[in-house]
User: Which sequence fits this backbone?
């Protein structure tokens, strides 16, 4: 194992998959000559050439659709959105074409495509650039959605996504690109299956269910809670769809108390689905109502203090944990 | 692969007859409530798809919008599979899961049947991208209506195709109406073909009621694309005799206008050309027509006799290579959650 950044981990995943399969290509705005808006594709143009690392005009609908068409005849496109906030311009391709094709064609055309890019609120980008899109996309049958929080998960999930025969969205965490973590050496194949959550920290008093940018937040809060003698288990969903119900139920069976901390909005958010499944399946294991911590139900303000108030943050999460623990 | 200019014109005439008789029968079956949803008929436009398909190889790609029955038939999808799809049967070309607007036939390189206006044009560019990526000499034919040219997807797709120099023919089937809105009320340009110029794509206007003109022009374009990949644009001037869909009486146009186009009927025209040249007798024509009618009647019988897609396959066509667990009803889920008549969960 060695320590690399989240950005490097994604870069390695791309390079390894491009190397492995000639049907894989990377397309998006500024992915080639500019070396990636967030430098995730750094060096790939030099290594794989312009046939496979392809710059596009600012036409998300157009190039997302191009990817879906190319996937119909067996190529494996990786389509980068500069941010998933911009994927909304391509919503029709991501929601109406990519996941419907397999059904509409009676199983004749599956779409092995990966849509990837940063997702979720970053820092003071205002309402249009701060979308957390996971709950929009996870509600669409035919799509798979994963949300890696660590360099290791980013690499392993992206590689798995590229090999999947269905449309997969890899929602990267904009604020975590420079974060570091331990990852297997490049000569060791790292594939992390979709639909497998991971306990990032063992605990016995409360389960904090989180994903993407809320994972480091939950870990930070867990350390604070330890000082107050509350042992928090941190369960990172890693994939939103498929959802690892077993890991969720196992953790609830152990701690009997749950807080879900999500980066999307509260109404019809990821936590609502997780919460439904918990009460439906392991109601008797609960010692307290499940609480969700999410964004506030408002468009993201630019002002830094207000933005902090909108986001799930440490204060809110601490308060929620204490509430479910009756502490 | 058969070079298609040599495809027999009499054979292509019988294909046009098959399309027409199929659509007439579909209309009747729709009125008899054997067919659900929306149903858009191609009657009047037969020369466009027949001529274009006659100009390409069987392994070239074709993709179209929702008025798609003819495109599947022209590509070799059987009338049986097409009618069964309209009936929602398992033997349909999309297993009864697509319906009138979503015909697919992978074997015959027919890539759909797409019902969001212009949303398939980027897909077509993707098909052409794959051709160039693999260094093949295929060509993509992308059909769409005059209504599609005012969607953003159309413009993005044309720009991408021109930028990457992709082997694709954009075929605009200009039947003068986007649903009930005439081109004059929807499009700022005097003629649609001028849209292509904005993207540095060569464009042509073709008489879409004339099979030979369509075939020869598309053939010429496709030959040049095979030599050096590039996009091209053709505005086919055509006309649909029926309304936009089955529910549309087409009161936005006059009887006189319709009659004018009927006199220019593509089938009558090719028939007259062939008769004049001594390649077809009246008796032969009648026989072709009779055969088309019989084939379509047999297709109705086939569709009627075909099974419905089994309820326990409901979750089989959402994800390729294995069903995904989350989303799928769990076997132990209590029965009261099911509405009356709702599909049963797959027990696997």
Assistant:
């Amino acid at each position: 194992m060695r320590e690399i950044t989240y950005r490097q981990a994604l870069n390695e995943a791309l390079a390894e998959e491009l190397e492995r399969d000639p049907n894989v290509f990377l397309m998006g705005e500024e992915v080639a000559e500019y070396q990636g808006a967030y430098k995730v594709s750094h060096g790939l143009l030099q290594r794989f050439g312009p046939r496979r690392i392809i710059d596009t005009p600012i036409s998300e609908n157009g190039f997302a659709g191009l990817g879906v068409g190319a996937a119909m005849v067996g190529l494996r496109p990786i389509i980068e959105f500069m941010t998933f906030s911009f994927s909304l311009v391509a919503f029709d391709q991501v929601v109406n074409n990519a996941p419907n094709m397999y059904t509409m064609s009676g199983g004749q055309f599956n779409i092995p495509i990966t849509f990837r890019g940063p997702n979720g609120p970053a820092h003071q980008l205002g309402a249009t650039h701060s979308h957390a899109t996971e709950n929009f996309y996870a509600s669409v049958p035919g799509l798979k959605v994963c949300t890696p929080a660590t360099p290791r998960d980013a690499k392993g999930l992206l590689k798995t996504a590229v090999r999947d025969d269905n449309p997969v969205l890899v929602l990267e965490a904009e604020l975590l690109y420079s974060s570091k973590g331990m990852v297997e050496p490049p000569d060791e194949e790292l594939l992390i299956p979709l639909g497998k959550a991971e306990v990032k920290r063992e605990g016995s008093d409360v389960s904090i269910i989180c994903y993407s940018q809320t994972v480091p937040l939950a870990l930070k809060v867990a350390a604070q809670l330890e000082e107050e003698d509350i042992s928090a288990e941190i369960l990172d969903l890693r994939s939103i769809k498929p959802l690892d119900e077993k890991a969720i139920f196992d953790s609830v069976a152990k701690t009997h108390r749950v807080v879900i901390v999500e980066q999307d909005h509260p109404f019809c958010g990821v936590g609502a689905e997780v919460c439904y499944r918990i009460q439906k399946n392991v109601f008797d294991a609960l010692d307290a109502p499940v609480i969700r911590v999410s964004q506030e139900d408002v468009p993201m303000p630019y002002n830094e203090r207000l933005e902090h108030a909108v986001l799930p943050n440490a204060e809110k999460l601490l308060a929620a944990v204490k509430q479910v623990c009756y502490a | 692969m058969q070079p298609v200019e040599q495809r027999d014109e009499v054979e292509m005439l019988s294909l046009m007859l098959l399309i027409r008789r199929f659509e007439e029968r579909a209309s009747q079956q729709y009125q008899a409530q054997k067919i659900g949803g929306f149903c858009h008929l191609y009657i009047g436009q037969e020369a466009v798809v027949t001529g274009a398909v006659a100009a390409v190889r069987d392994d070239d790609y074709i993709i179209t919008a929702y008025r798609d029955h003819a495109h599947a038939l022209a590509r070799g999808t059987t009338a049986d599979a097409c009618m069964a799809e309209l009936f929602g049967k398992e033997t349909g070309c999309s297993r009864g899961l697509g319906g009138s607007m979503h015909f697919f036939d992978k074997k015959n390189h027919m890539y759909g049947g797409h019902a969001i206006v212009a949303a398939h044009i980027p897909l077509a560019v993707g098909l052409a991208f794959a051709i160039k990526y693999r260094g093949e000499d295929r060509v993509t034919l992308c059909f769409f209506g005059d209504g599609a040219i005012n969607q953003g997807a159309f413009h993005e797709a044309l720009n991408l195709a021109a930028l990457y120099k992709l082997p694709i023919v954009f075929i605009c089937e200009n039947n003068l109406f986007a649903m009930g809105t005439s081109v004059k009320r929807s499009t700022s340009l005097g003629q649609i073909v001028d849209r292509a110029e904005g993207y540095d794509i060569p464009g042509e206007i073709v008489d879409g009621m004339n099979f030979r003109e369509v075939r020869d022009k598309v053939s010429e374009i496709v030959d040049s694309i095979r030599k050096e990949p590039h996009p091209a644009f053709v505005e086919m001037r055509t006309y649909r005799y029926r309304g936009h869909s089955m529910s549309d009486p087409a009161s936005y146009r006059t009887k006189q206008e319709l009659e004018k186009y009927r006199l220019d009927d593509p089938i009558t025209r090719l028939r007259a050309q062939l008769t004049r040249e001594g390649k077809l007798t009246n008796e032969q024509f009648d026989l072709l027509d009779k055969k088309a009618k019989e084939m379509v009647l047999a297709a109705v019988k086939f569709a009627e006799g075909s099974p419905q897609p089994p309820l326990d396959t409901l979750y089989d066509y959402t994800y390729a290579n294995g069903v995904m667990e989350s989303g799928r009803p769990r076997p132990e889920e209590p029965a009261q959650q099911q509405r009356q008549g709702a599909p049963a969960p797959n027990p696997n």
Observations:
- Chain A touches chain B through 46 residues (CB under 8 Å).
- The two ends of chain A are 39 Å apart (CA to CA).
- Residues 6-20 of chain A form the longest helix (15 residues).
- Chain A has a mean pLDDT of 97.
